[in-house]
Amino acid sequence: MALVPMRLLLDHAAENDFGIPAFNVNNLEQVIAIMQAADAVDSPVIIQASRGARKYAGEAFLRHLILGAVESYPHIPIAMHLDHGNEPATCYTAMRNGFSSVMMDGSLEPDGKSPASYEYNCTVTREVVDVAHAMGVSVEGELGCLGSLETGEGGQENDPGPGGALSHGRLLTDPDQAEEFVAKTGVDALAVAIGTSHGAYKFSKKPEDEILRMDLIIELHKRLPDTHIVMHGSSSVPAELVQVVNDNGGEIVNAYGVPVEEIQLGIKHGVRKVNVDTDNRLAITGAIRAALNDDKSNFDPRHYLKPAIAEMRRVCESRYQAFGCAGQGGKVKQVSTHVFAATY
Fold this sequence. Notes:
Layout: H1 6-15, E1 20-24, H2 28-41, E2 45-50, H3 51-57, H4 59-72, E3 78-85, H5 88-96, E4 101-104, H6 118-134, E5 138-143, H7 175-185, E6 189-192, H8 214-223, E7 228-231, H9 239-247, H10 260-268, E8 271-276, H11 278-294, H12 301-322, H13 337-341
Parallel strand pairs: 1-2, 1-8, 2-3, 3-4, 4-5, 5-6, 6-7, 7-8
């Protein structure tokens, strides 16, 4: 059985000092690209769906797309993860639909926009952990709000999140609080706020220490050496992908992401899950724009979707290799959620 709890993959990553990209999906082509890349380099897989993806594609379609990946690639361990669950009920729905991992994002109120209190975050995350672990399902929590340390504002491109100005403390995970949060909630992984955000416009320039706090990752790992750290909003936004989009009619300017070398530094200090979405969006969009421009009389969707799959596959392979998980897929002991539940 290829569908496994995410904790199993993160434990293996910690034991072998690598990280795993967690790719967001909305449709068939993205799932195909992720799995073709994983198969080519023998990597374990984390496929995740956000609330936006569930609304776009529908719960049943997403479930069967991912289960199709499980059936098509039985030799690859796959974790099926809910990204940014906004309340316990959302997480429970995902569990009922076969997700082997959920994120309870209690850093925000259920509206996905208002920053929540620390006490609220602890309460709802602990509630989800108790239910999930009884089912063998892994849980990711979040402490701190994603947002820009340049502008002091929250808000996430194409995703729910806090809008407007936030205090510096809200935009960074506090190490003392993180220790207490992990102890109180029992989460399997902790998403941290270090200055990253969703979308292509993370920074106005190549990020340096004052706007991308990798030192905080190092400190958190010292305090919590047995906790799997998660970096959200960690697409690298490669200039060449942006250029392809712009060369074919796009208008993406001043887009900077998280350099791969900074992610690799994080992996050396406890980062085990790295969320990547924008890079794949750029790859797909650039390939589609180029294909449509190359043959303007062709109206077969396969004409532009095939190169889109190929380009996203290339990006996924690159991330698997850069994060050190290539060659690790066949080494993961595959255990079902039912068996794994007994170990919690």
